[in-house]
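Our preliminary data section would be incomplete without showing what the modeling component actually yields. Below, a chain of 289 amino acids is followed by its predicted structure, encoded as tokens that our downstream tools consume directly.
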Amino acid sequence: MNKIWAVYFSPAGSTGRVVLRAAERLSGKLGIPVEAIDLTLPKARTEVCSFGPEDVAVVGTPTYAGRVPNKFLPELQRLLHGEGTKALGIVTFGNRSYDSSLAELLEVLEANGFEPMAGAAMVCRHVFSEMLAPGRPDEEDLAALDAWADAAAACLGAESDGKAEPAQMAEPAQVAQMAQIRPLAEARTPVAPYYTPLGTDGQPAKFLKAKPVTDLEKCDRCGVCAGVCPMGSIPAEDPASTTGICIKCQACVRLCPKKARHFEDPAFLSHVGMLEQNYTRPAAPAFFV
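Predicted structure:
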């Protein structure tokens, strides 16, 4: 193995940080370099990324409605191609559940020529609310992520051409026990339908067409929102508007330096309220090798 690739779609930034940490942990254990491929912005999704048997790919995506984000899924299928490439799949989720997102990611990777070796579902603060998983991933989460990466490194170590130092490599079974790691087969479940968002009344909340609105008194037209939109839906010449598809990733809301963008759609706000009522308990991450 010659290189570890950290590949991610991360509008709000959390997924990218988790993927990079895992890739760098692998790098330290296996003694091979890391290179990042950030597929978040449209301009980064123009060329196919091909990987060979000498590569290791750590691929990450957030969970949207219990699955790989539906607007990113075709891009994932189109852009990433392996040739017997060992892969680790990572999904992040905002304290409700990762549902089928990890199973779907592993399925896509395998269909595209990768050999999934490990999978993880990491809890991160929900992009919809400060009340959902605040401060996650915390130190305990990150320690478990490190242990999972160590277990994956131990499985990959035999193929590292002697570059890994055996003294740094814990036995796979020992590390798995430390991080409560389960066999990868348990993550390979049938992919279920998308989760149906509910409102506070328990009924389906329909907000597919909802878009953020801009407080014109706060907006100074700096263009940050246009630069971070993963769909390219915010025109640079009119950053107070959203002219294209909105995937509710909250990148423009969370990264606006003036806090000028927000959602007012009643159905969307009702769904956020339902999540805040029912999912403030700390969810647990899940690890598989």
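The longest strand covers residues 114-123. The beta strands are 3-8, 34-38, 49-51, 55-62, 80-82, 85-93, 114-123, 213-214, 261-262, 286-288. Preliminary results of this kind motivate Aim 1 of the renewal.
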